[in-house]
Specification:
About 20% of the residues lie in helices and about 30% in strands. The protein is of the alpha+beta class.
């Protein structure tokens, strides 16, 4: 073996050693990254903004993969958690879904039924009524002839709200079937769903059709819910 061949073998060995060193360095970097990042898990990100108290569905989210150690403890990793849930606040596009963003939709108790009516934005408690709220439902009726008086009545006390819909613009030319009301100007209304006993549901349906206005009064937590005699009906003459 001459000197030229020996130099070639030495250079080849050096090249192999350098390659092995580089490979070892890459493995070391990968191992260091894996030790810092850890395994990846599934999480869910909002595709678009979601309004408060809106029922949640799987189609509103996209699945992403991210390192487990970067995911918060209350992150939702299974969309079955959305069943029967609503957004508790406004959810922003791109936010990761977490269990403190959602709450269980109020359920019907035994003997209750759902009834929904449109409440004018101007006569409701705008933005303050949410699922789970308790309200008194007021209806005002015009005098219908001689000897009768216009009156305001609490038709249902301590009504339970189970859903609040989206603000909707109403056609000013529409009028409710059989109602004494007519819409003379553009209005906005919100569909409010209540959980009521059958008799109370009938009262609400009647008032929605025939009352001049239906209004909601939000009750504070711990407020008395039983009306005293004479409290359910008011007339102007009664203040004299």
């Amino acid at each position: 073996m001459n000197s030229r061949q020996r130099r070639g073998i030495i250079l080849l060995l050096l090249s192999v050693l350098c390659a092995l060193g580089a490979f070892a360095g890459v493995l070391s970097v990968i191992g260091d990254v894996n030790s810092k990042v850890g395994p990846e898990v599934s999480a869910y990100r909002l595709k678009a903004d979601v309004a408060p108290y809106t029922p949640l569905q799987a189609g509103q989210f996209e699945k992403i993969e991210m390192p487990e150690r970067w995911l918060s403890e209350n992150a939702v990793t299974d969309l079955s958690a959305l069943t029967g849930k609503i957004a508790v606040t406004r959810l922003k596009k791109g936010s990761l879904l977490q269990d403190d963003m959602i709450v269980k939709r109020p359920a019907l108790a035994s003997g209750e039924e759902e009834i929904a009516i449109m409440i004018d934005a101007a006569t409701g408690v705008a933005g303050k009524i949410t699922p789970g709220s308790r309200v008194n439902i007021f209806a005002t009726f015009a005098a219908e002839g001689e000897g009768t008086r216009a009156q305001s009545r609490i038709i249902v006390s301590d009504a339970k709200v189970i859903d609040v819909g989206k603000l909707t613009a109403l056609d000013p030319s529409e009028s409710d079937n059989g109602s004494t009301r007519s819409r003379t100007a553009s209005q906005e209304a919100v569909p409010i769903t209540f959980a009521l006993k059958t008799k109370d549901a009938q009262r609400v349906a009647y008032a929605e059709s025939f009352a001049e206005h239906v209004r909601l009064a939000l009750l504070a937590d711990g407020s008395a819910t039983t009306l005293r005699p004479g409290e359910s009906t008011y007339t102007l003459e009664g203040d004299k």
